[in-house]
Design brief:
This protein has helices spanning 2-30, 35-59, 68-85, 90-106, 117-136, 138-141, 164-187, 189-199, 201-206, 211-237, 242-245, 249-261, 268-287, 294-306, 311-330, and strands at 147-148, 155-156, 159-160, 239-240. By secondary structure, the chain is mainly α. The strands form two sheets. It has a two-stranded antiparallel ribbon. Strands 2-3 form a two-stranded antiparallel ribbon. The longest helix has 29 residues, at 2-30.
Length: 331
């Protein structure tokens, strides 16, 4: 019976994933000519990519970060500088932006021995350090004036990637690839060891698991993912300046999205980003033009109170309960 239940749950999860993928691919085609809606969808997927990288670090690595703006900004500047000053092709520069963020994360490895709020605050301090570096290194980053005319995403046969619909499918592909990596990692023996660390880090050390190395791997992977998203955003908007690239909004909104959608699931952070950002821009902003993001805080508190696991687990429970009642009624 348990096997049957697991099989049904697996089929339900697969069906939900296919429906979600169909909406992500087919939905935007309906709004391809509406540049405003497409801009919102691209922005929501950018936030979803950051939220996914944050959730990976929090869920698998067991570390809460307030400094993902550092990875986002370093990735953005690395890609922009390489393409503008060294002629690196944009698509290659995207990946190198992730590598740049990974290198920045190497400087943060000493703080892995810190736990809880101490780690979160230490990472936040690094974000401020990188923002100051971007402001002062005027010969490379343009200083506080930033960089303009960043090379856009290239045009491919049949699809201009710099267009709204083209950019959307680029960031969607990036997020999907990262989600697959996240899923494979979670199901690997590394994922098993990381989950065991959540229960007792000291106990896992006793059986020979090097927790510092595993946490370091998660930090580097999370940084790479966030850096690639930052690099994409730089070429999408074709402009960068330190206060934007290292803005606290690249931390707060993805965290809200990840927790709202359910950061312990893979699709939860992305779904949360789309729901939260579209609600904020299309509904809350029209009702409360100034201070509309305060509503997000209220929404997050309500979700934590009524469904601490997030939106997707809540919907799963509702549909499961409805399915169970329908099955009993039929019998």
């Amino acid at each position: 019976m348990q096997t049957t239940m697991n099989a049904n749950m697996g089929k339900t999860s697969l069906l939900a994933l296919l429906v979600l993928l169909a909406l992500c691919v087919g939905g935007p085609l309906l709004f391809a000519q509406n540049h405003y809606v497409m801009s919102l969808l691209v922005a929501s997927m950018v936030i979803g990519g950051i939220a996914l990288s944050w959730a990976l670090l929090g869920n698998l690595g067991g570390m809460i970060s307030f400094g993902h703006a550092a990875f986002f900004g370093v990735g953005a500047y690395t890609s922009a500088v390489l393409s503008m000053k060294f002629g690196v092709p944009v698509l290659a520069a995207l990946l190198l932006g992730g590598v740049g963020a990974l290198v920045a994360a190497l400087a943060m490895l000493p703080v892995l021995r810190l736990r809880g709020p101490y780690f979160a605050l230490a990472i936040l301090a690094y974000a401020h350090i990188f923002r100051i570096l971007a402001t002062e290194w005027t010969s490379m980053t343009g200083g506080s004036g930033g960089l303009s005319s960043i090379p856009p995403l290239p045009a491919l046969p049949g699809l201009d990637l710099s267009s709204k619909i083209g950019a959307y499918f680029v960031i969607l592909l990036i997020v999907l690839v990262f989600a697959v990596i996240y899923a494979r990692l979670r199901e690997s023996h590394y994922g098993l060891a990381l989950r065991a660390m959540h229960e007792s880090e000291d106990a896992t050390r006793v059986v020979g698991v090097n927790s510092v190395v595993l946490k370091g791997m998660m930090l580097l992977l999370s940084a790479f993912m966030c850096g690639v998203v930052g690099a994409f955003n730089a070429h999408y908007i074709s402009f960068l300046e330190p206060d934007y690239a290292f803005s606290a909004l690249w931390v707060t909104i993805p965290i809200v999205a990840a927790i709202f959608g359910g950061y312990r699931s893979i699709s939860g952070p992305v779904v949360g980003a789309v729901v939260v950002y579209l609600l904020d821009q299309l509904v809350f902003k029209n009702i409360i033009p100034s201070g509309h993001q305060l509503v997000l805080g209220v929404l997050l508190v309500a979700m934590i109170v009524f469904s601490p696991d997030g939106l997707l687990p809540l919907l799963r429970k509702l549909f499961k309960g409805k399915f169970t009642r329908s099955k009993h009624a039929a019998t």
